[in-house]
Batch of 2 targets.
Target 1
Amino acid sequence: MEYNFNDIEKKWQKKWSEAKSFEVKEIADKEKFYCLLEFPFPSGSGLHVGHVRPYTAMDVVARKKRMEGKNVLFPMGFDSFGMQAEQYAIKTGGHPREITEENCSTYKKQLENLGLSFDWSREIATSRTGYYKWTQWMFLQFFKQGLAYKAEDTMNWCPACKLALTNEELEKGKCERCGGDVIQKTKSQWTLRMKDYSQKLIDGLDHVDYTDNIKKQQINWIGKSVGANVDFKLSAGDDKLTVFTTRPDTIFGVSFMVVAPEHPMLEKFSGEISNYSDVEAYKVASNKKTEMERMEGKEKSGVKLEGVFAINPFNGKEVPIFVSDYVMMGYGTGAVMAVPAHDQRDYEFAKKFGCEIVQVIEGGDIEVEAYAGDGKHINSGFMDGLGKQDSINSAIKFCEENSCGEKAVNYKMKDWLFSRQRYWGEPVPMVYCETCKKVHEAEGRENAGWVALPESELPLELPHIDNYLPTDEGDAPLARAEEWVNCKCPVCGGAATRETDTMPNWAGSSWYYLRYMDANNSEEFAAQDKVNYWGQVDLYCGGQEHTTRHLLYARFWHKALYDAGIVSYDEPFSSRISQGLIGGEDGQKMSKSKGNVVNPDDIVGEYGADTLRAYEAFIAPFADDVPWNTSSMIGVHRFLQKVWRYADRTEDRPMNEVEEKALHRSIKEVGERIDTQRFNTVVSSLMECLNALPSEGDISADFMKGFVKVLNPVAPHISEEIWEKLGGDNFLVFEAWPSYDESKLVESTVSIAVSVNGKKRDVISIAADASKDEMEKLALASDNVQKFIEGKDIVKVIVVPGKMVNFVIK
Ligand code: ANZ
Ligand code: ZN
């Protein structure tokens, strides 16, 4: 019989769906397993084969865990807010909601064609009101906890496109859309106090099982620095300038100070600074640069403050102060003590502005560049002769004893800028009221004037508008919906206006794993007992590009919920893995413009979903980037055809020794390899299993029934079909994962290949310890071999013990 994969696959997809095979309920005494995939943004171009890789891999895990008797939660949904849908709507005149919903259903169809065992009864999309009601609700909880505040923040603004752009949306500092210049604009925006969670986010990594690489990336992103805050007295008044330094031990080498252009001391001392107009001009100029440009800062620039200087608390030396944009206001104190001999940025600045360079650590050649290495301290008063750590400790001790500083820790990670000037996002459920503002101000409250919507008014729905562009003033497109914007203050009943910024795309994706636990609940984001039953995600799989931001946002969000008493455990994901990318067959990144995109629908149509699944599992170690390769995909297809043919050869008889051993080995290997995410070797083990059988003669039906159980996670359709043909009752999906018998794995016999002139003619089974002579004798006795050598001269016999025999004939 022919392997009609298209019919077979459709048949089983229908059966599973009708039987609701993958829908799960919370069952108190059944052990759970929560297997989570990052949900896709439903773009107009649909799924490509790169998406399929993690989907298949996690489906393999979910199917095996199910067969092992676990209650498996394996959900899917859509991260469906975002700029792309909005841009597409602007281009085509459609509505982002309609475009998004259409894309969602295309994706869903594509996913169903792959035979993925998702529980679609729990489908979510972040842009549906039933979902974002709870995103808004969580924002309100954060606001109540004091975690949300309005702050003036600079944003990248493209005057041509009238769009605010994130740093990721810049290309070499220019707008990625029109290539035009981008300016810095300040705007009051919602911000979440994520920086306060820096240490918790580092500490939490000790209690989760992420790969070392993922942990390292998270730690780097948080960017913890340990050092000291040191106070320098100012010549003017009794004010001081505090700097953050990781190297207080180098303080005897300070020859100037630098403050950021935004530092408040500048304005404060504008009366004392005699060249303040130069300072102001410099402030304006640096405001035009993006943070990236400032950090790269190839050519140092700055202005020396005339009329004000600082005093080094360690030696009383007078130190000039500069303003320069290589110092950022957002980090530390926005001021640095410059040690040009040992910090390269300070060195470049000193060279340009003719400042003194005082070496305080032995080593290097400071005629050429700053020396950042270790060495003994020199020119450092009481620290002379000390090494790095000792002198840091004694410098901090000096600060504490003389009340001029203390130990300090800083984190590079910033608070989370939570406002976007876009339409297609969650409305922020806040209202601005002038009347309440006066009350708040009198109380000295933060966010004066901002009033939270009562929870009963959620969801605050996105109003319909026709123009999705921000206004000329840079206000978000929602500002155009005047009727919606003007409202009553929920506290005092006076005239008020709604927030017109929306939430970032990262909001909805920060808690979706919780919603899956109780996706259709209209009373709560999820019922507590369900949240407690499903608990932490056991295995979370997603892209490498999400190991920093998304994973940190979600962990922060969860910890904030935990601190607010909303969830009972403080880490959302107990383990995390990341898949590698699939590139084009030409070795380049798969992209439409390069014309090298492989569409999964085409592969499924031509070779079947099982082939695509097995190939994507087989393609390479899961975390490796790898190019698509059609001929190796066809190789996998041939393997499935072989499975199909072998199933046709079955007889009702017990397994023989060869079959038993091949099967037990495969059960062991496949099981272990799925559990450790070595999916590529799962497929090779299955191939080896069949290779161990003779290519002709009958095969035990028991062998085949066992074989399709281990094949099932990878190629579920063909295995269900064979299972049914062999008279297996129930779906294979619900069969128990087979166990293996260790004693069956001991090598008493081995299969060896017998060839004639290098062409394989038979596989025979012999004792593992058979001698070369015995091997040759048995090989010669094979009928298949005899056919080819009968009446011919054997000129040579090559025997590799335990492996093969080759007869060379004339
Ligand atoms: C003196 C010094 C001497 C420094 C030396 C370094 C080496 P990380 O490790 O990144 O935390 N710094 C502090 N605040 C800054 C700001 N807002 N913008 C730019 N630079 C800033 O780096 C901390 C070091 O970066 C600090 O230690 C400070 O320079 C500088 F041999 O102080 B250091
Ligand atoms: Zn009010």
Note: Residues 225, 244-247, 250, 327-328, 331-332, 334, 336-337, 339, 342-343, 410 surround ANZ (ligand 1) (CB under 6 Å).
Target 2
Amino acid sequence: MTIALFSSQKYDQASFDACLLNYTGISISHFEQALNEQSALLCQGFNAVCVFVNDVVNEAVIKHIAALGVTSILLRCAGFNNVDLAAAKAHNIKVCRVPAYSPEAVAEHCIALMLTLNRKTHKAYNRIREDNFDLNGLLGFNLFKKTIGIIGCGKIGLALINILNGFGANVLVCDPYAEQGEYTLCDLDTLLSQSDVISLHCPLNDQTHHLINEHAFAKMKQGAMLINTSRGALIDSKACIIALKNKQLGYLGLDVYEQESELFFKNRSDEIMQDDVFSRLVSFPNVLVTGHQGFFTKEALSEIAQTTIQNAHEIANQLPLRNEVK
Ligand code: NAI
């Protein structure tokens, strides 16, 4: 199997090279470019593409790569909202993903966002380097006994709940499919109105697009904290700016952003920022943005490479596909 791996970074090459040592018959060519309608022609001579969260795998791209002989799409991520599954099926292209590489990695990153926003360690770091030992402006709150609302209680949501229970927080969960657990199940409105901190862990789909909009912000406790490590378009960014300006939203921690495909995973420090919504968001002192790094641990990278190559191996050898997305 010959795989064209798009949006490749040095760390992808390192983790896939290490994993390939255990396999024969699979070769990978790394392309820095994202897969999209312009770069699809690079797939000539390959029978699989390997893509990440911001590669574009829409109907036009699928039609193009199918015509070039691509028969498999290997997602090296869990979410598959960027792939037109109906088009893949129509062109007889198999789609596999990595369903769970390290839910703990993302859950622990959520905690990093919560604690940094709350205890302002990023500001303290800079102050101390300038011999400024003033505590004014660094006041936080205890997570102990606070109400934390989790929207989407799957693998990542559950890993986060395990940590939050250790903090002694009261955990509320809104998930139409969740079973009973060490948390209180409730509906969305109850979660929005009672939570001090809200963290999003549901997938992005037609039902959840802009789940957090102006109406949701209006229902939140004044000064609540919102964390999103799931997918950017779960939040209406413009409504979010209004909620931050009128202080309805007290803290915002983002690892994902609606228009992130135009920005993330690249050093753009010598470019002029064209996204005014993003510029406004990062201008607030109570907003912390990381560039989709929730997954980014050694353990997760190794798991991603292993499962992706395993998926390729299963397709190449016509074995049952454990991680197929249909
Ligand atoms: P999962 O599939 O295990 O869990 C998703 C949960 O959301 C399920 O329990 C489902 O019942 C629930 N759900 C579905 N619709 C819902 C709705 N309308 N309201 C409330 N809950 C709903 O997924 P997992 O592995 O926990 O990942 C969650 C999301 O995290 C993924 O969809 C992906 O977008 C994102 N992610 C982000 C990463 C990062 O680096 N920041 C890395 C990996 C995943």
Note: The first helix runs from residue 10 to 20.
